[in-house]
Amino acid sequence: MDPYPWETHHPEGKFRVVVTQTLPGQRWIEILTTADCRIEVCRTQHALDSQSIRAAIGDRCDGAIGQITESWDAAIFDAMKAAGVSAYSNYAVGYNNVDLGAASRAGIPVGNTPGVLTETTAEMAVALTFAAARRVGEAERFLRGGRFAGMRPDLLLGTRLHGKILGIIGAGRIGSAYARMMVQGHGMQVIYHSRSANPGLESFVADYNRFRVSQNLSPVSCHRADSLETLLESADCVSVHTILDESTRHLLDARRLGLMKADAILVNTSRGPVVDEAALVDHCRRHPGFRAGLDVFEHEPDMAAGLAELDNVVIVPHIGSATRWAREGMATLAACNVAGILCGYPLWRQTDILPFLEGNPPQAVPSIVNARELEMLP
Ligand SMILES: O=C(O)[C@H](O)CO
Questions:
Q1: Nearest to 315 by CA among 95, 77, 131, 52
Q2: What range does the domain containing 327 cover?
Q3: Domain D-isomer specific 2-hydroxyacid dehydrogenase NAD-binding: where (predicted)?
Q4: What is the tens place of the pLDDT at every residue in 193-206?
Q5: If I label 204, which of 59, 99, 219, 348 is the partner at 20 to 30 A Cα–Cα?
Q6: What is the ipTM of this complex?
């Protein structure tokens, strides 16, 4: 017997679409309904395993929307191909949980949800940066624990970040948005590590410097690091925004953590396995002045032994994109990816996906990550 409760919308729909967890808002349901989809939503709080997803796909299915907490492996894509699935979307911008090669071999387009969660996730990185720098978690525990006996000149002294050096690992959409917030808001000097130079970010800082100079403020710098090691050695705060793949797994290991300043701050809102979490626990224990702000963990929902007990670590449960606007927008984009493919729409050729978020969405498919492999590009 199926252990999960399912809910169906538009049961008479022509296309059968499986959604492995309920999504926020109603608009995604309207979009799929307008595309004549029968929508079957699993009402579980837990990630489905491969076998449960295959069972849900069954003998006939046209589309699916899945979660980053699920592993969309080759067995699933084979089952999807056999069932006639022609569209899948991850409910996320990242897709490290998807076997993209298997999806492409099965001829199934894989959608993601870029653009809508950029500022929201960058805001969480900012929040964690200052929570770590100003010891917010520790201070709240102190207060709630009844230990506050009045303001004291030396109570819970933190780190001032204004004008200091900010290291960005992965200067893509979210990393750049975070950099802009920290430059404009806090006059930080940026050094970034990325596969290629980011002229957009550099020219943003150059333009902003014209304003600073007009205000008699000294300009801030922004340049690409010669190496990750240089960035780690020089930055006062390092924020991780890279994708997770085999080249970035444990990118920050014990050796590289050891290169960072003893009182530096490390923020991770990308993917947990980019940081060797056991090594981080050890590093934080040995350097009480070092601080970390983490939204993601190596083996979610678990944490490395000892991490939750560390006073110099601030932790939140993978809520980087968790504003209602962003999460409803992600649902809209995922629905548009699936509905667009099923309706035979072309790929959206612009980088701005905001037109999908209001009114009637464009008759296009917002974002397919294996479009090139599937020769969907003109
Ligand atoms: O990749 C993403 O979109 C996030 O991690 C999920 O919120």
A1: 131
A2: 6-116+323-357
A3: 126-320
A4: 999 999 999 999 99
A5: 348
A6: 0.94
